[in-house]
Amino acid sequence: MNDTASVGPLEGIKVLEYTGEIAPWAGKILAELGAEVIRLEPLDGSHTRWYEPFLADTPHPEKSLFFWHYNLRKRSLALDINSESGKKIFLKLISDVDVLLEDQTPGHMLELGLDYPQLAAVNSDLIHAAVTPFGQNGPRSKDPAIDLTILAGAGPAWSCGYDDHKLPPVRGGGGQGYHTASHWAVIGILTAIIARKELGKGQYIDVNAHAASNVSTEAASYSWLVAEQTVQRQTGRHAGVRPSSPTQVKAADGRWINSGVPARQGKDFQKTYDWLAEAGLLEEFPEAPLLQLGATRDGFLNLGAISSGEDPEGAEIFAAGRAAMVLLIESLSAYEYFTGAQQRGFQCGIIYSPEEVVQDVHFIDRGFPLEIHHPELNQSFIYPGVPYKFLGSPCEIKRRPPLLGEHTVEVLREIGYTPENIEVFQSENILG
Questions:
Q1: d(CA 303, CA 306)
Q2: Exposed/middle/buried for 333, CB within 10 Å: 0-12, 13-18, 19+?
Q3: What pLDDT score does 1 carry?
């Protein structure tokens, strides 16, 4: 494939998305991978079109920045799915797509007569992914939930916050509970697409958002299940049973740095020593001989042996590597440290505001800030671009979020309906 093509690895995959608030992120990811995503909306539009913030603080269903963010690259089909004609159109759509992604209340699709057995009878290749707070049939399947309660009940909120435990836990921002469920939905869909080649048929995927967040708690869940130990939240680093050293450091220009992982093998200790020398900081760092000692060691330091006290020399070397990074951060501007660490292969990151992220030259050179034109407003806006690059199949579809029902007629024609058919549907008031 030409490396300048704009299609992604899911080119040719068609997705019908029937979502509210929980799973549009999954549809967005599939669109970023090059799938054609048709967003099914009720005649008066998705309720998320009324989620703030709004462009110019003007509430309007076509100016919700929330809706814009989640629906970039998608098309909109407005249809009364509760009507008999609407159900027939829905089934015809199902016969033409690879994936149905929905986050309806458990039992809703069954009530409509559009549950998976009904849909699979129309299209045996269909992959049906249903995303709900607690799954379809569990004891809590009917319980109400929001993103916050999913994060709190499943465990991630406990692990997020500060070293000062007088402060309460912090909720992961940006719809993190719903996003986690959406990621698991995408993983399931991609796996089912691969499996379909071997099985010769699609399958049903039941995504439990609560379970998805619970298994995404890093060490928290299994520390308790295996050892009945409770991890404790820490500022800017992984929650752990035992406290670890702070990793957020203020740079010389007042910005904060997540210092990341310090040296752990010989070549890294040598790089750290050389960096101190280049920065003229060796005289300020009496632990420099420990870095030189670390440079003579083979392989990686064993952090388990260090934490257990089995390698006291390794513990001193590791601590010297971390202290060296702190001195470098405190002596350099945040950007100087960031670029210097990147050049030497060390993980780190500047703590940015969202506005600063899209202004960073690394992100700009990478093409992450994406300018999208809205002809209906005669304005262009900056969106987050695709967060991954596939060299063989890059995807950069510059399609703005859809207006309500903007593609209804277009989609119906694509699945075989004639202008006369569509005119009848319009007279029945089932199309938007």
A1: 5
A2: middle
A3: 31
Q: Are the beta carbons of 28 and 50 closer than 8 angstroms?
A: no
Whether the pLDDT of residue 7 is over 90: the answer is: no
Say if CB 287 and CB 367 are below 8 A apart.
Answer: no
| pLDDT tens figures, 379-406 | 999 998 888 888 877 777 789 999 999 9
pLDDT of amino acid 393: 78
Mean pLDDT of the chain: 94
Q: How far apart are CA 142 and CA 133, in angstroms?
A: 9
Peptide bond just before 53 cis, omega within 30 deg: yes
- For residues 207 and 184, what is the distance between their CA atoms, to the nearest angstrom? 7
Say what percent of the chain tops pLDDT 90.
82
Residue 224 burial by CB count (10 A; 0-12/13-18/19+): exposed, middle or buried? middle
Length of the chain: 432
Question: What is the mean pLDDT of the segment spanning 151-157?
Answer: 95
Residue 204's alpha-carbon distances to 21, 102, 182, 358, 428, in angstroms, are: 21, 11, 15, 38, 32
Question: Cα(134)–Cα(208) distance, rounded to whole angstroms?
Answer: 5
- Tell me the pLDDT band of 62, cut-offs 50, 70 and 90: very high
Q: pLDDT digits over 296-307, tens only?
A: 998 899 888 887
271: Cα separation from own chain's centroid? 33
Evaluate if residue 245 carries a pLDDT over 90.
no
Q: How far is CA 80 from CA 19, 24, 94, 416, in A?
A: 14, 19, 15, 19
Beta bridge partners of 370: 383
Compute how many other C-beta atoms are within 10 angstroms of the C-beta atom of residue 216. 18
